[in-house]
Design brief:
The chain is an alpha/beta fold. It has helices spanning 66-69, 87-103, 112-120, 205-221, 235-245, 258-266, 275-283, 291-297, 315-323, 342-349, 376-384, 399-413, and strands at 2-10, 19-24, 30-33, 38-39, 45-46, 56-60, 83-85, 122-124, 130-134, 137-143, 151-157, 160-164, 190-194, 226-229, 252-254, 286-287, 303-306, 330-333, 351-354, 357-360, 364-367, 391-395, 418-419, 426-431. Residues 16-224 form the Metallo-beta-lactamase domain.
Length: 433
């Protein structure tokens, strides 16, 4: 029999700021899953709850998006714990940490020295690997299918099995194979899973791609250019493959941090669904590296793929100001737009404020669902994979939507073993093994 203490430091009743601390109830030290940061409407960092580094036996980092990794260097001032992640995640996290420091107008509680400390204490792991953490603790690493290098962690603590998903996607995309649920046991004791899209069913990807390509061709043939603001990790690479796969032969420009991310991902082809297709897609694009190139390339119809995905900074903001005034052009948002972001403002109002100046959009605006998260049907299938005795904690989700999802699970499947914890909540779970 094992008593587990699980504390939600972030991601409880909210999307992002993911941070979960797990330990045996009678143990002094435990394990941290992710340590992410959100940003408020004024771009100030919102950190997860505090945990003392000396109380952490190990950190498991699911992937390199800032809402899962962005607070991690703050733990590496003293008593630095080992951090387990795929080598691809570690390289991508490095550039994301540094970009957060460069772009944030407000104080982040770490600098380059702490970033180096994270990497100095990193232990690379890969899919299918079993890792002995200590005498009574081992971890199994499983493909999560979310972004390149993302992982599920199955942690066994003195016989009790805890699965942490981070963000995951059961469906295959152009870029990645879906999460490897076949290697996830059914008799896990506790599942801590994301529920970003508990009320959304994603449309068939083939339909999304078809309409996406139609809009691009129509815009270019009409003499306009296309701006596609993307997330640096995952979405940039997915969009590049989608353009190449569908035979788009117009100039495709890559700018911003996506250029570096593309090169890092190319070093790890075994993480990709079709490495050859990815490498051809990258080779088919043109990298922009100077302000002179930026200023000159919008004179002719082009397709520009650049961060930031929600238009909060990055080279995409420059292109938005240049292209947004011409109704022949198109702005295509292929990512979720969080409230209080410029992308959300454009979608709902047709205008936004960037750098304290108003941007009024004349260009056509589109949004496409290229999500790399599991939708409602996949989340239901994932929960149904486990034994009725499994305790499921649903995090990284909006509280009201999560409660609606719980009602649906009870009516449709008779499932009542799912709980939606809130931030700072501590749960004690007894595992009889």
């Amino acid at each position: 029999m094992t008593d587990l203490m699980i504390k939600v430091l972030g991601g409880g009743g909210e999307v992002g700021r993911m941070a979960i601390f797990v330990k045996e109830a009678n143990s002094e030290r435990g394990f941290l899953f992710d340590y992410g940061v959100n940003f408020d409407e004024n771009d100030r960092p919102v950190m997860p709850g505090h945990v003392r580094p000396r109380d952490i036996m190990a950190v498991f980092l699911s992937h390199a998006h800032l809402d899962h990794c962005g607070a991690l260097p703050s733990l590496y001032v003293s008593s630095p714990p080992p951090v387990y992640a795929t080598p691809l995640t570690l390289e991508l996290a490095d550039i994301m940490f540094k970009d957060a420091i460069k772009l944030s107008g407000y104080y982040l509680p770490y600098e380059d020295e702490e970033i180096k400390a994270v990497l100095d204490h990193a232990i690379p792991v890969t899919y299918g690997e079993d890792v002995d953490i200590s005498k009574d603790v081992k971890a199994t690493i499983i493909n999560a299918g979310h972004v390149p290098g993302s992982m599920l962690t199955l942690l066994e603590i003195n016989g009790a099995r805890v699965l942490f998903t981070g963000d995951f996607n059961l469906s295959q995309s152009n870029l990645l194979r879906g999460a490897d649920i076949n290697n996830v046991p059914r008799d896990v004791d506790v599942v801590i899973m994301e529920g970003t899209y508990v009320t959304n069913t994603h449309p068939p990807r083939e339909e999304v791609e078809r309409e996406f390509i139609r809009v691009i061709k129509e815009t270019i043939e009409g003499g306009g250019s296309v701006l596609i603001p993307v997330l640096t990790i995952g979405r940039a690479q997915e969009i590049l493959i989608t353009l190449y796969k569908n035979g788009i032969d117009y100039p495709i420009i890559i700018d911003g941090l996506a250029r570096i991310a593309n090169q890092i991902v190319a070093k790890y082809p075994h993480y990709l669904a079709n490495p050859e297709l990815y490498l051809k897609a990258v080779e088919n694009s043109l990298e922009v590296t100077t302000d002179y190139q930026r200023k000159s390339l919008t004179k002719e119809p082009v397709i520009i793929v650049s961060p930031a995905g929600m238009l909060k900074g990055g080279a995409a903001v420059y292109y938005l100001k240049k292209l947004g005034r011409d109704r022949r052009n198109a702005i295509i948002l292929p990512s979720y737009q969080a409230p209080d972001t410029p992308g959300f403002e454009l979608l709902t109002r047709g205008r936004t404020f960037i750098d304290k100046s108003e941007v009024i959009l004349e260009a056509k605006l589109y949004w496409f669902d290229f999500s790399s998260h599991s939708g409602r049907a996949e989340l239901e299938a994932f929960i149904n994979h486990f034994s009725p005795d499994t305790k499921v904690l649903l995090v990284h989700t909006e509280a009201i939507k999560a409660l609606q999802f719980l009602d649906r699970l009870k009516v449709k499947y008779g499932i009542d073993n799912v709980h939606v914890p809130i931030n700072d909540e501590t749960l004690l779970i007894r595992v009889n093994r």
